[in-house]
Amino acid sequence: MVEKRKRVVLEFNQKLEIIKRLKKGETATNIAQIYGVGRTTMNDIKRDAEKIEQHVPLMQSNDGDVRSHKTKKPEKYEQLDNVMHQWFIQARSKGIPFSDPILMAKAIAMNIKLNGDPNFKASIG
Question: In tens digits, what is the pLDDT along the chain, a chain of 125 residues?
Fold first, then answer.
């Protein structure tokens, strides 16, 4: 039986930490093991390092901390993102299990409830 690898989604600040470690000379293999990601993810981070670092000023909150957002979402989905985050926190505290299809279905349903963008398509991540 082939074991399916758990999908790891790195937060923005984790990607910055990885870039710093790579610049200090740590091996990508070692860093990948620490963060539980594969070689492809490490290659993507290396390739996009300059873009990731350029987003630091955009991703800083009022208190100067880099937010943990994985990507910068368009403003038109900000309300949906906030509602989904609140729902996620509540559901997680109740021990409800999650999968990508469940989260995507919930996002579509919430978008409809909020009279959101009729062209909205939920995606993984």
Answer: 555 556 667 887 888 899 999 999 999 999 999 988 888 889 889 998 888 887 766 555 444 444 444 555 455 677 888 888 888 888 878 888 878 888 889 999 999 998 888 888 888 76
**Contact, 124 vs 70, CB < 8 A?**
no
- The sign of the torsion formed by the CA atoms of 99, 68, 59, 43 equals negative
45 exposure class (CB count in 10 Å sphere: 0-12, 13-18, 19+): buried
d(CA 86, CA 90): 6
Return the structure tokens found at 60: 């800083």
- What's the rounded Cα separation, in Å, for the pair 7 and 71? 17
Assign residue 28 a region (left: φ > 0; alpha: ψ between -120 and 50; beta: otherwise). alpha
pTM for the full predicted model: 0.47
Neighbouring C-alpha atoms within 13 Å toward the C-beta of 56 = 12
